[in-house]
Each structure stands twice: as structure tokens, then as C-alpha cells.
Amino acid sequence: MDCTRRHALVLCALIVCLSGCGADQSGQSANPIGGAGGAAGTVPMNVPTGGSAGIGGAAGMAANPMGGSGAGGGAGIIPTTGGMGAGTGGATGGAPAPTGAVSYHKDIRPIVEARCLGCHVDGGSGPFPLDTWAAVEPVGALMVSAVMTRRMPPWLADDTDCTKIKDSQRLTDAQLKLFADWQAGGFPAGNEAEYAPLAGEPPPRDIGEPNLIVKARTPHQLDPGTEYYACVQTDANITEDTWVTAMDIVPENDEFVHHAIVSVGNGSCSALGTTAENMYSYRPGSRTLIFEEGDAMLIPAGSRIAIQFHYNTRFESWGSSLPTDSSPLRLWTLPSGQKPERAIVRMPHHDLFINIPVGAVDQQEGGTQSIGSEYARTGAEIIGISPHMHYLGQVFKETLHKADGSDVCLVNIPDWDQDWQLDYFFDPSAYIPIARGASVSQVCMFSNRQEDQGTDPEGNPFSPMYTTFGEDTRQEMCLGYIWFRYPLSGAL
Ligand code: HEC
Fold first, then answer.
1. Same domain, 14 and 92
2. Could you tell me the distance, in angstroms and rounded to a whole number, from the CA of residue 126 to the centre of ligand 1?
3. With 80 as the cut, is the pLDDT of residue 271 above it?
4. Can the peptide bond before residue 154 be classed as cis, meaning omega within 30 degrees of 0?
5. Is residue 233 part of a domain?
6. Distance of CA 24 to the CA centre of its chain
7. Could you tell me if 144 and 30 lie in one domain?
8. Residue 373 and residue 396: Cα distance in Å, rounded?
9. Cα separation values, 90 from 31, 64, 79, Å
10. What angle do CA 84, 91, 62 make, to 5 degrees?
11. Which protein residue has the closest C-alpha to ligand 1 atom 15?
12. Dmax of the chain from CA atoms?
């Protein structure tokens, strides 16, 4: 059983629980809220470990006993992160909060709805729903631990002293304090009438339905019991220049589509040494990528579209009835013959000379590259960045050196996580005009100890090895895709 990978946590806890939950029933409760009335239920234990170290391995995990009568079934099975204590505590369900005190309905629910429900709903990629008080109540302590350590919501970039990111999902210090105060107050539900949605969160622009659906040419037969990458050729028939204004991938089944990368070009899924270019990547919780009004990305006539799917069928017992997958790539395109006002292009910025010996800790790699004239066109702006490393990555930073000699921080990722490869688009008010003579430099830090390793398809951690550059997950990359837009009229 692989209990070292994060997405296996819940399942691992379930297994641990099934095989030994009863033993904890009389255990000392580390739970601060103790049996404070309300419906009988199970409150998960959580002993924060002060960092992400607590999620590292099975040894640190304690499973919560199955719920009492109030919290039956799956809701009572919650993993904890770190610490061995587990026990039952009475739920504080519905306990009224003192006036003014931090409560679920007034303070926590607006944040949860805006930052968690993209994944934590029935059928979503999150391991359990958080969309009702009944669902939240038994996992309050676990939620607080997940947000305080910034494991949740998954959002790696810290734009505090960097270019402002549009739709940043990072919780503010003030929001973290609300979670801490909610815990200190005993996780009160509060009064439903006090609920109001988070202010300043405009809904995404209405773009209607996609007009081009691209699917596997032949549905991909899933390979049971393993985790693997498949390069799937699609039925796309791009006979003329096609401008994409928005795109997404809708997995047929979130449980086994782990992530997907769309390549446009010669049908290769690799962007290295081929004429294929990565255009879009999907991972759990991805929302539709919608470019600003007037912006679009070109798929040149004659291109083939291939999608590299990362499948994970390890934790499902589908047996011989494992289904096929044809998760669609959905594209919103401009009408035939119409051009956008501005084109969007991505420039890869690689360090190809990575050498990471076994035992390395925070070893710095990276380099500087000038921004070529194909990107630094008249009126060009940088609109975002998609950083990429694998398991050994720890820190990623990218800096723009403008032609006038000034520097701009493009992205700062203080605590890299291979499982969350995200695209960071800037707030339009923060788009950065660039001119010829500009360059970018990146800093990638890598560690190569046992605890930094990924796992093989059976879920066993790899042993550290001398690691160099490469696309395989056992090799490393220090790559930033920088997104530009430039006006089509008058472009050089
Ligand atoms: C982009 C999808 C996504 C969003 C948004 C998200 N989660 Fe999660 N969450 C997951 C996935 C997937 C897992 C299981 C794997 C993991 O832990 O990385 C998880 C695990 C958890 C866990 C259990 C494991 C742990 O790390 O403690 C908690 C608690 C949790 N999420 C709470 C939250 C809260 C609270 C929010 C909002 C503030 C949130 N999540 C937002 C996808 C998401």
C-alpha cells in the first residue's frame, strides 16, 4: 500500500482504519474541543506538525475511528496528518457562537465556497465534499491543518512581492487567522443568516458552449492497477488556421485522469526536440482557461493534436471491466477566417544542464535567457507563467530583466509540489510590457534525499539517484513557460 503519495492519503487512512480503528476508541483525545454536546459524531484528530513533513509517510498517519451514530459511513473516515493520537470527541454541531465570534456560516463558509468547492464536492477531485455544514463539521480540525500549512487550497505561487496573479487562490493571512480563530473557538457553526459570499469574486466571463470538441481517435483502453502516461492521438482535423479563445479538458472520470497535457504540432507528446508545442495542461481542479477578450492562441492549419494523459488506476478495483477513456479537449474558437486583436504565444525557458547528486539539499540550478524577437514584438506584454519541475523541485523563481535595467518578479514558489502543476496568469492591470533587450532568469532549487523522491507505478518510493535533465519523471526539469500576448495589427 502506498501511503506516501498525497492523493492516496484518504485511501491509506481508510485501510489503516479498517485494520485498526477500534484500537483507538479509548485513546486519549488530542482534540481541543472535547465532548461539547451536539449530535454524537466523530471529530478527526489532527496534530499539526508545523509543516508539510507530516504528510510524508505512513508512519505519521493516524486514522480516525469510524464515526458514531451521527457521522456514519465515509464521512467518519478521515485521515489525519501527523501525530498518532486519535479518539472520539463529541461534535460541536450547531453550537451557537458567541456574538462576534468567528463561525462557520459567517467566516469560514464564504472562503470554503470560493476556494474549496471547485474540488471538494461529490464527484469532484477532492477526497470528500465540504459543501454542507454536515460535511464540514467532522473535518474541521483537518481543514484548519490543511490551510495553515498551505497544503490546501493547492496554489503554490506567493504573489505578495511579485506580479499580481489574477484569481489567486492563495489564502490571505487574515483568512488563515479566521481558520485559527474558528478552531480556537471550538469550530462553531454560527448562524446561517450571517452567511454572505466572499466579496470581490466576479464570476468568469460567460463564453457559451465550446464549438470544437477533440477526442481520442480510438478510445484509450485503460491499463488496470497501475499509473502511467499515454500519448493519445486525437481526431482533430485542423484544415485552416484556428484561433482558440478558451479551452479545457473534462475528464470522463476524475478518478483515473490524473492530469493531461495537450500538444499541438506533429503528433508528438514531447515538446523537446520536436515541432510539437504544449498548449494546455489539465490537472484536478483545473478551470476553463479563458483568455481576455480580444486575445486568442493559434493552432496552425495542418497541425495534429496529441494529448498526453497521466492515468492512475492503481487504487480502483475495476477488475477486467476497466473502461476506455475519451476525455474531450473542448475548444472555443473564433469563426472561420476571423483573427483576434492579439495573439498569445508561450516561450519555454529551460535549464538543460541540471546535475543533482544524491543527497543534495536545496541545490540551485537555472539560468538566463534573452527574450527573442519572436516574443518581444511591438506592443508585447507578459501575461503569465507556467513553472514546471518534477519531484526533486523545492523552490521556483523567475525574474524578468527589462531592457531598461529594472527587474520584475514573475513568479515565486517557495514550496514546490510536483502534484500541482498550475498556470499563473497575471491580473490584466499587472501585464508587463516588454521590449527587445529583455531577458529572463530562473532559479530552481532541488533536493535529492529519500524523502524527496517520487514513486514507481506500484507506488514504491524510488531510491535517490544521480539526476540530470529530462522529461521522464525520474529526471528533472527547470522550465518556465512564459505567456506573451502581442497585437496582430502592426506586429513586426
Ligand atoms: C484543486 C482541487 C482542490 C481544491 C481547490 C481544494 N482541495 Fe483539498 N484536496 C484536494 C485533493 C486532490 C486532495 C487529496 C490529495 C492531497 O491531499 O493533495 C485534497 C485533500 C484535502 C484534505 C485532506 C488531506 C490534507 O492535506 O489534510 C483536506 C483537509 C482538504 N483537502 C481541505 C481543503 C480545503 C479546506 C480547501 C479550501 C480552502 C481545499 N481543500 C481546496 C483537492 C482540492
1. yes
2. 6
3. no
4. no
5. yes
6. 33
7. yes
8. 25
9. 10, 13, 18
10. 15
11. 7
12. 75
Asked if 292 and 353 sit in the same domain, the reply is no
Atom of ligand 1 nearest to the CA of 143: 29
CA 191 to chain centre: 32
Q: Do 117 and 13 lie in a common domain?
A: yes
Rg for the chain, CA atoms, rounded: 24
Half-sphere exposure for 173 (CA within 13 Å, toward CB): 3
Of the CA atoms within 13 Å of residue 342, those in its CB half-sphere come to: 20
pTM of the model: 0.79
Q: Is 147 in the pocket of ligand 1 (CB under 6 A)?
A: yes
Of 397, 374, 394, 376, the residue nearest 385 (C-alpha): 397
Where would I find the beta strands (DSSP E) of 342-430? Answer: 342-350, 355-356, 363-370, 381-388, 393-401, 407-413, 424-425
pLDDT digit string, tens, across residues 383-442:
999 999 999 999 999 999 999 999 999 999 999 998 898 999 999 999 999 999 999 999
- Same-domain check for residues 322 and 357: no
* Residue 483, H or E segment: strand 479-487
- Ligand 1 atom closest to the CA of 81, numbered from 1: 27
Ligand 1 lined by 54 (C-beta under 6 Å): no
> Residues 434, 402: contact at Cβ < 8 Å?
yes
State what percent of residues in the chain have pLDDT above 90. 62
User: What confidence tens digit (pLDDT) does each residue in 330-388 have?
Assistant: 999 999 999 999 999 999 898 999 999 999 999 999 999 999 998 999 999 999 999 99
| Angle subtended at Cα 453 by Cα 452 and Cα 454, rounded to the nearest 5 degrees | 130
Sign of CA dihedral 237, 241, 246, 247: positive
Please give the residue range of the domain that contains residue 103. Answer: 6-194
Calpha distance 15→2 (Å, rounded)? 11
Q: How many other C-beta atoms can be found within 10 angstroms of the C-beta atom of residue 463?
A: 8
Do 19 and 165 have their domain in common?
Answer: yes
> For ligand 1, is residue 284 a contact (CB within 6 Å)?
yes
